[in-house]
């Protein structure tokens, strides 16, 4: 039986073998306070980013909390990578996990590393994960395989002491790092009284049809839990308020999250109906790539092709990035 693997031990082991790259983007000089905007009755539509929205990276790159960084758009397009976390210990045991915080199995670790290899030449400036360890492990392990060799660092703003104690004083180190924002809004949907129960035994107790409705219907929640609609409400609101503004400025974003929170975001990106999204299946550790351009999201597919050319459709900007990356590493 697979065992849980220590994130710190794995990251330390792999990262110690990776050379640093001084050409990586700046890490924040000051911690930040991420605004939480949970809006009700939202419409699933793409809206233009307004100047009043303060992007995360602009805030992070300010030398102090009182300094304002100009909102300069870096490019007319940006990459968005979505990765469902690798297999967890409760995935392996066929248990309802929801918001219970369990780590990856050895297979899950391998899936995260393989995902990292598949996205190793796609630019990443900023990472968002859920607050759950399986998503954070997936993001960290994936980035150990990235050719830019930047170090992902989870930002802590839960208290003033956490901000102070996690402050990075070396500007050179900040240049070699990628900020990681953990947000509960990207968590898996809360399965209520089903959490920790075996899925087959639950079907025997309540009936296959009832369990299927709890798992796959859009509007029906499990007992004391969230429906997919409720999960979509928080996940999409967070995406619109905090992630889409970064993409609009040309910042490339990786999101490592969960089946239902990512399903919700894909519903928004691909303009799926509530019926279409319930049949959407996401494999663990398999990335999806979107290009954000002219306020529109264009899916570039999933890395299932036999060669890199067959993995993702190329764009001019991705080709330029890969060329610069090759030059910097040679």
Automatic annotation (TrEMBL):
Site, as annotated: Transition state stabilizer: 258
Keywords, in A-Z order: Glycolysis, Isomerase
Active site per the UniProt annotation: 85 (tele-phosphohistidine intermediate), 188 (proton donor/acceptor)
Gene3D superfamilies, sorted: Phosphoglycerate mutase-like (3.40.50.1240)
InterPro entries the UniProt entry points to: His_Pase_superF_clade-1 (IPR013078), His_PPase_superfam (IPR029033), PG/BPGM_mutase_AS (IPR001345), Phosphogly_mut1 (IPR005952)
Enzyme class, first EC level, given as a word: isomerase
Keyword Magnesium among UniProt keywords: no
Binding positions for substrate per the UniProt entry: 84-91, 97-98, 134, 188-191, 199, 215-216, 259-260
GO biological process: glycolytic process
Enzyme Commission no: 5.4.2.11
Molecular functions per Gene Ontology: phosphoglycerate mutase activity
NCBIfam families attached to this UniProt entry: PRK01112.1
Family: Belongs to the phosphoglycerate mutase family. BPG-dependent PGAM subfamily.
The protein's name in its UniProt record: phosphoglycerate mutase (2,3-diphosphoglycerate-dependent)
Organism: Brassica oleracea
